[in-house]
Specification:
Elements (H helix, E strand, L loop, with lengths): L4 H16 L1 H4 L5 E4 L5 E3 L10 H17 L1
Antiparallel strand pairs: 1-2
């Protein structure tokens, strides 16, 4: 099969546009989990800046306690 110049230039332009796209250059995020309907929960790129670790742990324990009690 002979490739014409038009088809070759089209293939070359597609290859360049794929390389330059943001999706190709973006690093994959770590998937922490998946919900029942297929939504992926991704790991945040940075740490929380408004709360301390102890404040977050206390809030999580309160929510878990409230959920288990009713």
């Amino acid at each position: 099969m002979k490739v014409t110049a038009k088809v070759a230039s089209r293939k070359a332009s597609k290859a360049v546009s794929r390389k330059g796209s943001k999706v190709a250059s973006r690093k994959a995020s770590k998937v922490l989990g998946t919900t029942f309907d297929g939504v992926r929960i991704l790991k945040p790129k940075g740490r929380a800046t408004h709360f301390t670790v102890s404040e977050l742990e206390a809030a999580i324990s309160r929510v878990r306690a409230a959920r288990s009690s009713g």
